[in-house]
Design a protein that fits this description.
Blueprint: H1 2-11, H2 16-19, H3 22-33, H4 41-44, E1 51-53, E2 60-71, E3 76-87, E4 91-93, H5 97-106, E5 109-110, H6 112-127, E6 131-140, E7 154-161, E8 164-166
Parallel strand pairs: 2-5
Antiparallel strand pairs: 1-4, 2-3, 3-6, 6-7, 7-8
Helix pairs in contact: 1-3, 5-6
The structure holds zinc ion.
């Protein structure tokens, strides 16, 4: 793949000498952005790791979790923050686990809507919470090539209540 990338860059008229390490850097960069495929949820959290019995109805909110992922349409990064809130039922989750789950899921090729859904599905499966809300605010570098979309922040949200699924754009 590195040869093809170099050929492509040369075809643009770029100087070969300057670019000689760019293809291998680009491949490592792609590997970093897709390392989440090598991880499983069980590596992070499970019945004996990071889940605790709960008897409270206290709502947990975790705001401004930073993330960066790669858009599966353009192989361009998008990045921003994620907000998760949930009202537990039988279990609570260790607070460090949610950013770790987000990191695993975001280091795959994604679209923002799908990433929002994936985070929701994983947390619902783990916690069966009374309520769960996942909201992602992100800027997409694939949009930056088109002014004025480079200043747009995209927000996606998923909201779940036991036995009913609702969609919401509120924070
Ligand atoms: Zn894109």
């Amino acid at each position: 793949m590195e040869k093809e990338i170099l050929k492509f860059l040369e075809s643009l008229g770029c100087e070969k000498e300057v670019l000689k390490n760019t293809p291998s850097r680009f491949c490592r960069y792609l590997q970093d952005y897709t390392k989440g495929y090598d991880q499983k949820i069980g590596d992070i959290v499970g019945p004996t790791k990071g889940l605790f019995p709960n008897s409270s109805e206290t709502v947990v909110r975790i705001k401004q979790i930073p993330f960066s992922s790669m858009c599966q349409h353009h192989l361009a990064p998008y990045f921003g923050t994620i907000y998760v809130s949930y009202q537990p039922d039988k279990y609570i989750i260790g607070l460090s686990k949610i950013p770790k789950i987000i990191d695993m899921l975001s280091k795959r090729l994604t679209v923002q809507e799908g990433l929002t859904e994936e985070i929701k599905i994983h947390l619902v499966n783990l916690l069966q919470p009374r309520m769960l809300k996942v909201c992602i605010s992100a800027r997409h570098s694939c949009l930056c090539r088109n002014i004025p979309y480079n200043v747009v922040t995209i927000t996606t949200a998923k909201y779940r209540k036991k036995r009913t699924y609702l969609y919401s754009t509120e924070l």
